[in-house]
Design a protein that fits this description.
This protein has 133 residues and is mainly beta. It is built from two helices and eight strands, in the order ββββαββαββ.
Length: 133
């Protein structure tokens, strides 16, 4: 987390959306609320990218998008494209224990209900072959 960010509070809402409240360490600056909606689920293995649409105070959000994109400080696997935040699941998982499981993922969907994230995951594990291989 950045030295300027004091707290991040994620609040899932019903209908595949959630709010993120960001509290910064600067005095007299109120918490910033960013709303996210799941726009497109990842399609494994062809397009394992979760697409979120975000909004922040209308026109201020567009300016924020340009500013954040110009910083070039987003983690590998995270890309900002205007009002869309694209999360490349395999790239984000690189180096983590979960990365080895991605080869088995056939379907992965993120959903939200009030106060909860729900992960719908379908894995496919091939049966052992009988021909000695």
């Amino acid at each position: 987390m950045s030295a300027h960010v004091r707290d991040v509070d994620i609040r899932p809402r019903a209908g595949d959306s959630f709010d993120v409240l960001i509290t910064v360490s600067w005095p007299f600056v109120p918490a910033i609320k960013v709303s996210f909606a799941i726009e497109r689920q990842p399609q494994f293995p062809a397009s394992p990218v979760l697409v979120l649409r975000w909004s922040l105070l209308g026109a201020v959000g567009a300016l924020a998008s340009r500013f954040i994109a110009s910083l070039d400080r987003l983690p590998a696997g995270v890309r900002l494209d205007g009002e869309r935040l694209l999360l490349d699941i395999p790239r984000l998982a690189e180096g983590a224990a979960a990365a080895s499981w991605l080869a088995y993922v056939r379907s992965l969907e993120l959903h939200t209900v009030d106060d909860r994230f729900v992960l719908d995951l379908e894995l496919e594990i091939a049966a052992p072959r009988n021909d000695g291989r």
